[in-house]
Amino acid sequence: MAKLTQENPVSFLEIAPIRRHSLSMRYFMIFSLLVLAACGGSSSSDRGMTPLPSKAFTGPPDEVLFDAVAKYVAANGRPAQTTYKHKRIDLNNDGLLDGIVYIDLPHQVWCGWDGCSMAVFQAGQKDFRAVAGMSGIRGPVYVLDTTTNGWRDIVVRISGMKVRDKNVLFAHNGVTYPQHPMNAPDYRGSLRSVRKETLFR
Questions:
Q1: Confidence of residue 54 (pLDDT cuts 50, 70, 90)
Q2: CA 197 to chain centre
Q3: Listing from the earlier edge strand, what are the strands of the sheet with 116-123?
Q4: Pick the residue with more confidence: 90 or 4?
Q5: Quick one: which of 86, 43, 40, 41 has its CA closest to 67?
Q6: pTM, two decimal places
Q7: How far apart are CA 178 and CA 194, in angstroms?
Q8: 54 vs 51, 57, CA distance in Å?
């Protein structure tokens, strides 16, 4: 508050509104603190707030799959410079994204007149396990919504000089998928009308 002197005259009428304003602000601050305290003591359900759902676990990251592929390549005596494409899909309906790997380079190592190689890796909680190895595969590869022995059906098209062009069904036998299209039955359905995911075009 300014000191009452001749150099700085302030009348009582000018001071009184300042005091009333200060008291009003003090009461407002006390009231606000009481309201905040009451709100802080209530639960989230009282305030109508819903916690955000946590992201579901869908399996190990891609880097773990890449390590599994490298071990698969080494176990088959193939060069470390192998090149491949991959896709993560839940094949056995366990909520984990398995790995389908299409291996095409070096071409003379992984491919032949009938196509290239493909492998299926089952996802676990912390790692991947190779459950199928195939050869003679040409893209595109179709992963259907239909299942056999709990695993999604896979359709590939075979073509070449020695066979007529046709679609064949890779159905899981409870342990693995067929190793080659020549060992798989013809697929009689229509790919246009069935629900599917298309890979490796």
A1: low
A2: 15
A3: 83-89, 98-105, 116-123, 128-137
A4: 90
A5: 86
A6: 0.72
A7: 21
A8: 9, 9
